[in-house]
Amino acid sequence: MGSVADSKVWADYNAAQADRPVRSLCLDAMALAGPGTGRRAIDLGCGAGKETLALLNNGWHVHAVDSLPDTPDRLRAIAPDADGRLSIEVRAFQELGILPPADLIFAGYSLPFIHPDTFGGFWAIVLDALQHNGVLAVNLFGDRDSWADIPEWNFHSEPEARQLFAGLEIVKFEVYDADGQSFRGPKHWHIYDVVARKR
Ligand SMILES: C[S@@+](CC[C@H](N)C(=O)[O-])C[C@H]1O[C@@H](n2cnc3c(N)ncnc32)[C@H](O)[C@@H]1O
After folding, report:
1. Which residues constitute the domain of residue 169?
2. Does ligand 1 lie within 6 Å of residue 138's CB atom?
3. DSSP 25-54
4. How far apart are alpha carbons 198 and 39 in whole angstroms?
5. Residue 30 belongs to domain with CATH number
6. Residue 35 CA: distances (Å) to CA of 46, 54, 98, 103, 171
7. Are the C-beta atoms of residues 195 and 139 closer than 8 Å to each other?
8. How far apart are alpha carbons 76 and 29 in whole angstroms?
């Protein structure tokens, strides 16, 4: 991702998110991580900011990352009272050299959109930022997804996906493998919803 056309796709996608509930994967991560007060969470590919807001409302300091240039405007509009608990980084994941230490890292439907050549390096940065006992909650795409022939995005077999969490305690690993809809029309979804903890 990274072209103007891609930005338009994400802008349209994010604009359509206003009425959906907070992602259950983020709620699972918050429940597992415990009270956010005084601790930092990272929302990778924060998009419309629904999960950023949910984290803020649970007391977390939130570092929100997204490559879309209007991300600060969008987040400040929905969280005007963040009181210095919100930091925003407008950057493509593959251009990040470091992330701040965090006790919760959430990435909702965002990590698959990294080029496979740069995914491994970025994943190492994510694991490095995750603190002892920290919770990581991500969606990854499987190799049976109908988008799996898109060379710019990353897809994993289930053993490959599980291997990414080697050294972490996998608390939840759910596989969704079914026909459905996307913002681009009908497709086959093959998704891993993963919650893991650093021990
Ligand atoms: C499908 S949306 C998901 C947004 C939100 N997390 C959610 O669950 O609805 C993907 C988001 O990730 C961002 N994104 C996609 N690829 C990215 C990349 N390589 N670096 C940074 N942000 C990226 C897009 O701008 C978009 O806001």
Report:
1. 4-198
2. no
3. HHHHHHHHH---TT-EEEEET-TT-HHHHH
4. 16
5. 3.40.50.150
6. 21, 12, 25, 11, 18
7. no
8. 23
Residue 78 near ligand 1, beta carbon < 6 Å: no
Closest CA to 107 of 160, 77, 81, 96: 96
Burial readout 139-166 (b: 16 or more C-beta within 10 A, e: otherwise): bbbbeebebbeeeebbbbebeebeebbe
Question: From the CA of 23, how far away is ligand 1's center (Å)?
Answer: 14
Residue 198 burial (C-beta neighbours within 10 Å; 0-12, 13-18, 19+): middle
Domain count along the chain? 1
Q: How far is the CA of 96 from the centre of ligand 1 (A)?
A: 14
Report pLDDT for 1: 44
Is the CB of 110 inside a 6 Å radius of any atom of ligand 1? yes
Q: Are 135 and 105 contacting, i.e. CB atoms less than 8 angstroms apart? A: yes
Q: Which two tokens stand for residue 157?
A: 């077999």
Hey, what are 81's tokens?
């009272």
- To the question of pTM greater than 0.70 for the whole model, the response is yes
Distance between CA 158 and CA 191 in Å, rounded? Answer: 10
Listed as ranges, residues in the chain with pLDDT below 50 are 1-2
At 18 the pLDDT is: 87
Distance 180 CA to ligand 1 centre (A): 20
